[in-house]
């Protein structure tokens, strides 16, 4: 794949969606490529992708008698945005933890960019280019916002104990990192908070900071666990824009999200988990109409589309709930 | 009045005393552990005792001063590695349990008759046996010097030379810790203190950073142990749990995660401690219902109460940042 890392000139230069600007930017080459590539992929569980960056096989994780994750086969496409959805307790976070080395499976293996990484430590997975964020944010409270992001920079000679004592050895790297960190912070509108302790940020700001930190590592693949949860709706729109920009810059994105509109809006592919298993996958439009998916979310016997705007209406939801209870 | 002046002079003497420097240095080490990295080392006295033994035994076996110093540092390093290997992968509390018991094991082994030939059992090692090489290093002229109200011999055990060396070591440690903690390396340590998993998720080898911090703080503890025994003798029972407890008090008093906190904490601690002990013995305090033989116990109780009061009312210590600490109280 020669053009993975090719950056679309027009896009990156003005990659700062000023705010609530509606509508996604026109799809770039990479986006179109991913879209095109996946459009020929059959929407079946375990289907092979044209260019998979992550391949998982037979991954199981049990807690006592309960099987939290039981994924037979999954491929995640390179350079695409893949959403992982499913009801609460479906095992999405646990699956994330396994893939990123924060938990150990009872069985199964997976490879990233062709190399097996199922037994690697979390740090090595991250160094291999697969970087995650956490559902329960982990802001480093007593570090400033800027320090949080600077910490994420890779290959800083100043992070080696002996070299760190001699500032000239790392000052230049640090200065470069700082420039980059400020750029990223600006993108997430955290630049004004740069010298505040991260512990003083709001929940939504912490989500943004965590994403900023992950980006600072220059990942090949970024794994976001509910990046939009708690983020101001006005900012969600620009956050979605950022995520698309990342994809357009050639990054692969796998994200967990409960907001169906966000999912429908930006993802190229949707994977649905329920009770640990993958019950459906496919392009967002068709998957949300899939009966197995609707069942998993709303209980059986509904023919509602999950992406349907009517589901935003509390009245409709209440009616659905009542109907479900009557059964 | 004259008596009060005497008490004050004694207390002023404590500010510069070698033991004060030793506690400051040990607390600087503990600060690297706890203040910067969040490691719960509850056995700093173990590092100190091991450093003292390493230095003393090496010197007695004929090692020159600087070699003996290096051996003490190596002993501290080895101890840190042994304690860290099995525990640093686990939750923080495990290190606490292991350090407190390992420190006790060192003391028990030292005072047992097993290694009598080296450690002198519970009687310990006489100062005269290992101080020679240190005192020969002195470039001060013989005689006595009076600075302000303080007067000591220039050379010898409880001398200006010992003070000069001890505080030079403290200053050197401060410089090293300052250089390290303001660097990206120090930033990783603080990240580990705040949330290991977040740092791991960014691709850093958390285990290795924790090990480096444990070794650095432990080596500083070993050096502190040497300073502690240079004016006196190596007595294992003087370097037990109480010592660890005092080092913690000193560090928390001055302010964890601050550069000068440990030094300020140590000076203040021993200054006040002397005033309390000597003060209670003066005629002025005769109205107190405390018999002289109990003065040290009462002072010990006061230390404990002080520690509790700090933790409750000023957990950030004297130099700590209130705002920073407030973030924790969520
Ligand atoms: N450490 C653990 N010990 C025991 N059970 C666990 C553990 N972690 C997760 N589980 C269980 O595994 C199941 C899947 O949890 P997980 O957090 O992966 O769900 P999720 O899909 O991320 O849900 P949500 O959308 O609510 O975040 C849950 O039933 C949970 O109780
Ligand atoms: Mg989850």
From TrEMBL, chain A:
InterPro entries with a match to the protein in the record: AAA+_ATPase, ABC_AA/LPS_Transport, ABC_transporter-like_ATP-bd, ABC_transporter-like_CS, BCA_ABC_TP_C, P-loop_NTPase
Pfam families: ABC_tran, BCA_ABC_TP_C
Residue stretches making up the ABC transporter domain: 54-300
Keywords: ATP-binding, Nucleotide-binding, Transport
Recorded superkingdom: Bacteria
Residue numbers spanned by region Disordered: 1-35
A GO molecular function held by the record: ATP binding
Protein name as catalogued: ABC transporter ATP-binding protein
Organism: Myceligenerans pegani
UniProtKB/TrEMBL annotation, chain B:
Bilayer topology term: Multi-pass membrane protein
Keywords: Cell membrane, Membrane, Transmembrane, Transmembrane helix
Chain segments annotated as transmembrane: 36-58, 65-85, 160-180, 213-234, 246-276, 297-315
A Pfam family that the UniProt record links to this protein: BPD_transp_2
Predominant subcellular localization, coarse grouping: membrane
Record's keyword annotation contains Transmembrane helix: yes
The protein's name: Branched-chain amino acid ABC transporter permease
Source organism of this protein record: Myceligenerans pegani
Superkingdom, natural source: Bacteria
Lipid biosynthesis listed as a keyword: no
Localization: Cell membrane
